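Hey, I was hoping to borrow your eyes for a little while. I've been puzzling over a protein and I'd love to understand its fold better. The fold is given in discrete form, as structure tokens running alongside the sequence. I'd be grateful if you could look everything over and explain what you see. No rush at all, and the record is pasted right below.
>
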Amino acid sequence: MTVHEPLESGLARDGETPPHRMPIRDPKRAAHWLSYALGAVVLLLVFRFVALNPHWDWPTTGAWLFSKRVMSGLLNTVVITLVSTVAGLALGLLIAAFRLSDFAVLRAMAAAYVWVVRATPGLVLILFVYFLAALVPTLSLGLPFADPFVEVPTNEVISQFSAAVIGLSAYLGAYSAEIFRGGVLSVHQGQFEACHTLGLSTWRTYTKVVGPQIIRVITPSLANEVVTMFKNTSLVSVIGYVELLTTVQLVYSQNFKTIPMLTVAVIWYLVLTSLAMLGQSRLEKRFGRGFNRRVVTNTASAEPAAQGGAA
């Protein structure tokens, strides 16, 4: 006879379930239902604000969403974002290497660059590059204090496109440099020493051992900067470069459909941001294998159940 037999037999006569066989009730059940109710209310308010408000003028938004002018501005936005992102990340890698260098001069130069660029608004930086000819009328290449080998007017080099790319790349370079540096510092120094002891070169150390760990750490922050780059392209409208927002502004200055045209820009920015977030999710899944806390939690909770079933 077991300990629970008297209790079970006594409860069986009354038609009740033994306490140890009663289902465990979730104490947060009421909170869950309250969250569902709140979500339903929010969805209804959003639906009423977006779908039932005639001032959105959805027919006009649909008519201009895939128009030739809007698609041309969207293409300019994508091009300037891709070029500025690649150049900015390459510059950020270089600045991060300088900041982690053993040479004090390189560290000081990189720290000064990061300090100046992070203290300067992106709009001011783009304007400064665009009007660089007022400070440096000509760009020359040669030895110091000697006649230059090549000399060209600055206005011929700094166009609207190049000024936008240089300004956005310099802006991203400063922020990405700190992200790269933080990723390297997140790896324990012992791993670098172990790789050096095994005779691995610096290149193989970063590409085979610490590189994947660094990418796992910096991917969310870098993806956030790339998403910000899509939105920062709207700043180049001040120098006359026709990107998505500038195109939309030119259109609603003619047809006076402000809200529908701004909605067109918002929709395309949402599409671009969603694509960037999809790439971020793929990278996190690729380099985050073995570090997924959700999988670890589910595995730990499933072990007792498996053991109970086996018993």
